[in-house]
Design goal:
The protein is an alpha/beta fold. It has one domain: Rossmann fold (3-Layer(aba) Sandwich). The chain has ten helices and six strands, in the order ααβαβαβαβαβαβααα. It has a six-stranded parallel beta sheet with strand order 3-2-1-4-5-6, sandwiched between helices. Helix 3 links the parallel strand 1 and strand 2.
């Protein structure tokens, strides 16, 4: 579905403010996930991958945006692994704040196991962020593997670790993927061009009928 693309295209201006508010410094590489803390959203895969990732790149921080019934369970699991200082739970933020939250991130992960086309995928690309996503449902409509991000076999923890480490080690790749996503999807997801396309389809159907 279409959306206002400008807030995402212009989101970079919020980056310093949001990162400062959450205590991130210049050296931190923020891996973010925007989703309800709910079954099938796949936060547990990120938590399970975190130890391996942090042992290689201790500057990484994980930012979970969203609320839900599993928050305490996830926090307990993170604490059990001794990783609490590396995870930040932002809770529920209003939709208007999503562009700003994305601006604070360096890599966006999407580890849901079932979803149509998650809005966060086009939103992340419009905000110029590389995406690491399980290849489920609508993800491949948006994430071009090796161009705007990485598509992984669902539940593949090793691939998740490898993809995040690859992007973490290469700021140039992060920027390239982000720019490619922005360029590719800015017009496609703009609600005005969507409306125009829908009108065009209707017109063709009506002309065929007449």
């Amino acid at each position: 579905s279409g959306m206002e693309v400008e807030p995402f295209l212009e989101s970079a201006r919020h980056r310093d403010r949001v990162r400062a508010a959450y205590g991130f410094t210049e050296k931190h590489i923020v891996v973010g996930k925007i989703a309800r803390l709910f079954e099938l959203k796949g936060h547990e895969f990120v938590i399970a991958a975190a130890g391996d990732i942090l042992s290689r790149v201790p500057e990484i921080r994980f930012l979970f945006v969203g609320d839900g019934t599993l928050q305490e369970k996830y926090k307990a699991e993170i604490a059990r692994r001794g990783l609490s200082e590396y995870f930040l739970f932002a809770g529920l933020v209003p939709p208007t704040e999503i562009p700003a939250m994305l601006s604070a991130m360096d890599i966006v992960v999407h580890t849901s196991l079932r979803e149509g086309l998650a809005r966060v995928l086009p939103q992340a690309l419009l905000a110029g962020k590389p995406v690491v996503s399980f290849d489920v449902d609508g993800a491949r409509e948006v994430v071009v593997d090796g161009e705007t991000g990485f598509l992984l076999p669902p539940k593949d923890g090793q691939a998740l670790v490898a993809s995040i480490l690859t992007l973490a080690a290469d700021p140039g790749m992060r920027e390239r993927f982000g720019n490619a996503g922005q360029g590719r999807f800015a017009e496609q997801f703009d609600h005005r061009s969507m409306t125009a396309r829908i009108r065009e389809i209707y017109r063709e159907i009506l002309e065929r009928k007449s």
